Amino acid sequence: MKKGYLKLGKTSTASLLILFVFFVFGQHCHALVFQDTSQSFNEYKGYVIGNDTRKPLVFADISVVSSNISTITNKEGEFTLKVPKSLSSNSIKISFLGYETQEISQERLKGKNNTIALNVITTQLSQVNINVPKDARALVKASLENRREKYINDKTLMTAFYRETIKKRNKNASLAEAVVKIYKEPYATSKSDAIELVKSRKNTNYSRLDTLAVKLQGGPFSTLYSDIVKYQDYLFYNEFFDYYNFSFGNSTQINDRQVYVVNFEQQANIITPLYRGKLYIDAETFALVSANYSLNVENKDEAVKLFLRKKPRMVRVEPEEASYRVDYKSTPDGKWYYSYSNVQLAFRVKWRKKLFSSIYTLNIEMAVTDWTNNFTTSLNKDNKLKPTVILSDEASGFSDPEFWGEYNIIEPEKSIESAIKKISRQLSKIKSK
């Protein structure tokens, strides 16, 4: 069969993230609002591990039962959860893909150094158990249809925590964090969501970037657009759906619910960079509940066109990795909603007259930590973020342990904590000169 070449349109699968390489003199947008921290809360810190391996469980979900408050573990299995004292009688639920969900009363938790071990699911899920459909392609189509019935169909106000890191080789060079309000439109509509900045901070060591900054244009919107149920065209654009192969993987469980696993990848005769990965589809509702996927970057010349907007003429940029993750949670009445997404991009940057190249890695993630569909507040236009926003520099908050107040955040990794201290010290030396 003749190899096919697909022309990407304005709504192509890769249009959600636009990176550009430029000299550091750029414009920044900034808005900063502080929260009233008068309300009291209980704070719990600890680790979630697998009882079988005793290793950390990355992106395990920790939530307060009968509420919309939640957080996730970081890449070291560590978490921090802040619970209003009005909910001190509610249990804490911990869940992870392929492990049994566990509920723990708050009375059993200490303020620090909690270790929660989850048991791996031992029951094999057979075709008889979950009545596996014969056609994986049809199942994926079914999972993306009838969003009105499967997902929250009310306007929803979400509180979310956003983090962005830029590394040169293995060293952190830029760190940005923000708490945002997401004005989520019903899944049944095509109206785009809006984001309001509540609080943010950023710290960048431009000397480590060697006067070349790899900037993420989009900020929190980049993670929000990973909600592929709401923004389906970014992954399964109608024209491209038929250029994928779909197959079943081994079924599993998420939050004690049986889940189909569907593998997908672009067909061999298609040379335009598309995606490959796994889709996790609820066996009862046929709702997409999680997805892990990555862009095919083997054709580097074509792949880089999906990301690069502008660069110096003496620089060659090649994509090394573009990986994505998105998770959804269910409400007590069985409706699903966006809860977490993660995007990791790696680029090789080579100056024409330099001997060695540099690898820049950008990791961005956003976790919904609370939400309500009963709200009367309206979007603050002064703090509304544009899809092209770049969070501005605000280093002071990194030295303040109470900066976030009662907001739930994703616990920083040890490497990030170390980088924060190093960058802050370097900036202090520069300012003192």
Average pLDDT: 82
Radius of gyration: 22 Å
Count of discrete structural domains: 2
Q: What's the SSE pattern?
A: EEEEEEEEHHHEEEEHHHEEEEEHEEEH
Distance between the termini: 66 Å
Largest β sheet strand count, sense and barrel closure = 11 strands, antiparallel
Helix content: 10-25%
| Approximate shape | globular
Give the percentage of residues in beta strands. Answer: 35-45%
Overall strand count = 20
Structure commentary:
The chain is mostly beta strands and 433 residues long. It has 2 domains: 18-33 and 126-432, no CATH class; 41-118, Immunoglobulin-like, CATH 2.60.40. It contains 8 helices and 20 strands. Strands 9, 10, 11, 13, 14, 15, 16, 17, 18, 19 and 20 form an 11-stranded antiparallel β-sheet that branches. A hairpin with a 5-residue loop joins strand 18 (315-330) and strand 19. The protein is globular and about 65 Å long. The chain starts with 17 loop residues before the first strand and ends with a helix.
